[in-house]
Amino acid sequence: MRGASNCFTCDLSFSCSVLIKLEEFLTPVVASFRYFELEAVHGKLDRLAEVDMSVCTQLDLQLDILFQGRKERLEVNTQQQVRDLLKTISNIVGLPASKLRVFHQMIFQGQVIDTSLMSVFPKKNLWTYNMSPEDIIICDHKDTSGMTNAIVSFAGEGKLERD
User: Fold this and answer.
1) Please, which contacts does 148-152 make with residues 24 or more away whose CB atoms are closer than 8 Å?
2) Alpha carbon 72 to its chain's center
3) How far apart are the first and last CA of the chain?
4) Domain 60-162, what fold?
5) By three-state DSSP, how is residue 114 classified?
6) Does residue 118 contact residue 129 with C-beta atoms inside 8 Å?
7) Alpha helices per DSSP H over 43-116
8) SS3 for 150?
9) Which DSSP letter does residue 116 get?
10) Helix or strand or coil: residue 30?
11) Are residues 81 and 126 in contact, defined by beta-carbon separation less than 8 angstroms?
């Protein structure tokens, strides 16, 4: 009797898996038939919108890098990670990457709409910041000795003010 119940359970689980696979296979076919039925009744659908995704797929950007009043133009590949950008910037400014704080300023039509501290996420890919050619990278020397309060001001030339 035990063998029969195990066999029944085995057949039942096999049957269920076959039904699931059959449903996965037939769903697109049934959906396409339904689409054509609806198209015959209501006519062909118009496109809802034209979306320009070229900004999202842009790999290389020319960005301004600000550091202590200096401004450098740098070509940035958005497929790289933040730590790769930190290495490049550290070579330009002459400080180790561990001593830098790097901010990304998102600019839209000349207005700063977002500022984020990039250097705390070294493994994050640059494309996740939705960078555009208008954006600015601001660097600051990480000085923790004797600093109690820090006020970050992005209104000027990209300089950071301290109390």
Assistant:
1) 152/103, 152/115
2) 24
3) 84
4) Ubiquitin-like (UB roll) (3.10.20)
5) strand
6) yes
7) 82-93
8) strand
9) E
10) helix
11) yes
Report how far residue 36's alpha carbon sits from residue 47's, in angstroms, rounded to the nearest whole number: 17
Please list, in sequence order, all residues whose beta carbon lies within 8 angstroms of the beta carbon of residue 68, skipping any fewer than 6 positions away: 93, 141, 159
Q: Are 106 and 154 in contact (CB under 8 A)?
A: no
Q: Convert the pLDDT of each residue in 138-147 to its tens digit.
A: 998 887 554 4
| Helix H or strand E encompassing 2 | helix 2-42
Query: Measured between alpha carbons, how far is 34 from 20 in angstroms, rounded to an integer?
Result: 20
C-alpha 47/C-alpha 111 separation (Å) is: 32
Greater confidence (11 vs 64) lies with: 64
Residue with tokens 């020397």: 141
Residue with tokens 């940035």: 76
The structural domains of the chain, with segments of one domain joined by +, span 1-46, 60-162
The string of pLDDT tens digits covering residues 24-63 is 665 565 567 777 787 788 887 777 777 776 655 567 888 8
Paired strand residues for 70: 67
